[in-house]
Structures are given as C-alpha cells and as structure tokens.
Design a protein that fits this description.
TIM Barrel, 8-stranded parallel beta barrel, alpha/beta, 259 residues, 11 helices
C-alpha cells in the first residue's frame, strides 16, 4: 500500500519531497481527450516526472453528457478510446469514474433509462480499459454533487451488472462520510475496492488538517481485507495541499499504523 496525492504532474517534485510515491492527475487536464496527438504533452510530462502518474480522476468532462437526451455514443466511444491509449502511454494504472456533472440525471428524465445509458457507457469503456491494462473504478458521490450512484451499495450494483475484472469500486472517505454511510457498507464492498481517495469531511480538506476526522476505523477495515492498493489524498483544490501535504501524509501514516 502506498500514498499518493492529486496534484498536477508539474508539481511532482514537491510531492516526492513530501514523501509521496505517486501522483494522481485529472483526466481532462492531463490526458486531454479533446486535444490532438500533435499538441498533447502528457506523455512528455509523464516521462520527466520524478514519481509516476499512477491514476487519473474525473474520467468524463461535464461538457460530454453520459445521461439524458443529448448523449452521443460515438463521441463518448472515441473519447474513451483516446483516453485509454494515452493512459497506458503515461503509465497510468487506474481511471476513476466520478464525473458528477456528466452523469447527473436531468430533471424529469427516466432514471431507468439513465442507468441503462451509464451501463452502456461502462461496458464500452471497460473494453478499452482491458485492452490497455487499466482498472476503471466506480466512485459513489454525495447527493450535493451528483444525483445517481450515491453510495457504495449503489456503486456495487453497477460493478456487478458490468461484471468485468477491469471494472471495480472506489472508496472515497469524503463522500462516504457526507452520505453518513455505515461501516457495514464498506465491509460489504471490500472485495471489490481497488482504489481509495481520502479527504476530511464535511469540507474536502487535507486529512488531519481539520482535526475532526478519524480514519482509523476505515483503515482497520482495509487492513483486515489486506488491501494493498493505492490511497490518494484528493482535495477540492490542489493549491492548499501543496503547503500542507507533508503534515497530512504523516497524519495518514500514523492513522494507518494505529488502525
């Protein structure tokens, strides 16, 4: 198990100096699926990074709708194909399906149809993920940010319906606490957890900085399950973590050891 942090790859040297083993990037910024190969710089940036870029979040930009009457299956397929090719090129191993704006169900739109649209997208995406040796993980988001897939049990329903080894589940402590999910939800999901995001709640601040969040119960469950995946600090804005990341990392390591 290793700790990483969501920051731009240009800040990788500072992350390494603070003790992190990897960074997690943002898909639209780093893999830039709407950019042509001629102007895309992600591969060069990854080659020159002092620590690896092992994951990328926010799979789909808000401008590319997954749900509703205005979806474009061909555009989505072409976008995901390019993203997966670039992810493999840069050494990324995990792509995070959060994309709250893109997957939000429009008011009045049939929710069963919305679920079918998401499943169709996921089944198409996991085909490319498998081809490029990538793990796609489903993130449950709190209801203030998205109105579908709001809990670990709901995320698991998608994982089970897609039924593919390259599509698994993510635990995000911020959303988990915001939704007041019981620890039993985590225990039930543990066999499918392949990636973890951590941040304090109710505001997404660096772990340990607010002083009001105890990660030890969650870490204890992960340790019981012999979780050996990555754990990434994800704040709402990367700027604050740059000044506090060493303190936050030390806090997380202490919490892990005490769990």
């Amino acid at each position: 198990m290793q700790f990483g942090v969501v920051v731009p790859v240009q800040e990788a040297a500072r992350a390494k100096a603070a003790g992190f083993y990897f960074i997690e990037e943002v898909v639209p910024r780093f893999l830039a699926g709407n950019q042509s190969d001629e102007i895309w710089q992600g591969g060069t940036l990854a080659d020159n990074s002092p620590i690896p870029v092992r994951a990328a979040k926010m799979l789909i930009p808000g401008s590319l709708k997954l749900v509703g009457p205005d979806t474009d299956a061909t555009a989505l397929r072409n976008y995901i194909q390019r993203i997966c090719e670039r992810a493999e090129r840069t050494g990324i191993r995990t792509l995070v399906f959060c994309s709250g704006v893109a997957r939000t169900v429009p008011e009045g739109f049939d929710r069963k149809q919305a679920k079918r649209q998401i499943l169709e997208f996921l089944r198409s995406s996991v085909h490319f993920c498998s081809r490029h040796n990538l793990m796609l993980v489903c993130e449950a988001m709190n209801r203030d940010e998205c109105n579908i897939i709001n809990s670990l049990p709901e995320a698991l329903q998608y994982v089970w319906e897609v039924d593919h080894p390259n599509f698994q589940c993510l635990l995000d402590t911020f959303h988990f606490w915001r939704e007041q999910e019981p620890i039993e939800n985590l225990r039930d999901a543990l066999p499918w957890i392949r990636h973890v995001h951590v941040a304090d709640s109710p505001v997404r601040t660096p772990p340990g900085i607010s002083g009001n969040c105890d990660y030890r119960p969650i870490f204890a469950e992960l340790k019981k399950a012999k979780y050996d995946g990555d754990i990434t600090i994800e704040t709402i804005n990367y700027a604050p973590i740059l000044d506090e990341m060493e303190q936050s990392l030390l806090f997380l390591k202490q919490q892990w050891n005490e769990a």
